[in-house]
Predict the structure.
Amino acid sequence: MTELYASAPVPIRNDLAAAHARAWKRIGGPGTWWDGAQRVAIAAETRHAPSCALCRQRKEALSPAAVEGRHDRIGDLPEIVVEVVHCVRTDPGRLTERWFRGIISAGLSEEQYVEAVSIVAHVVAIDTMARGLGIAPLPLPQPEPGPPSRYRPPAAKPGGAWVAWLEPADLTDREAGIYPEGRPSANIMKAMSLVPNEVRSFFDVVSHQYQGPLAMRDFSREYRAISHAQIELLAARVSALNQCLY
Amino acid sequence: MLLRASGVTQNRDYDLTAVTSVAEGDAGVPHGRPLLRFAEAVLGEDDAVLANVRAELMEVLHPQGLVDAAAVVGLFNAIDRVADATGIPLEAEKAEASADFRAALGLDRFAVGARG
């Protein structure tokens, strides 16, 4: 068991702990559109969101858009970033394209938005697992210095999602390996392809916290301590609770 | 949809209605009931309920099974957010293959395009 989960009451698979350690290091480092300090601030705000009074009022409202106010925040991220982080964390099943377009009109770029969503997703994946196991959330990483790379894939274009994405045929060397070979790329992988490093990072976590693309569909053997059917039952129930069709 | 695929390959007929309602049955999956209750408890706010179902799962699935169950719940709690926040549609082949049970279970009301 790696140092990260050395005090956990149950043994965490080494590959899983190592994947979390890599994810945490990436969150603390300079990203593509946010620097390390901003990325850690987004992670911290993700953890803070469930205690935000405005988010709770919106969650209980028939229409979240009808409730106005300011978010309770812990850092100095711009209000529009806090809005994204809190809404994606606390009420994702009622996000709308109209809300997304409003965020972009207010000045956040699609690239910044995708990277912020990715950081929220990393933190939710790792923190929710910790809650399930009854262990304390990992301390957030220390920010590392350095500017964001600001790389936008030249072939990214509008597809079927709210955000632009990359089709597999349009990948250049700089985006190589973000999609599995030999099978169609799922939309969930294309979703964050406007920021290729976030696809790499998040699906590194996916492969160890769930299953890799081949194991996922190989029903001839089991790769985890619970069966494919047990895994998919959990996945389906979580998605139903989150009111997520995908 | 992979739950159904798993059932086909295992020659089992899983009860998909257990996925959309409060866990009454086990969906035909071994230890399905505590797994469903575990998912609900992790996403819920009652720590005592979670502690109880966690202990129950530890008993039947042992520590490694509990870790893998918690990992999957965590991961899908995140994947749902990526899907919802980016507005991705269901792929055409998945939509076609799942049309019958989406209709039967009323799942299409959760589609991104169905939101106001």
Summary: Chain B has one domain: 2-86. The mean pLDDT of chain B is 83. Residues 96 and 108 of chain B are 13 Å apart (CA to CA). Chain B is about 65% helix and 0% strand.
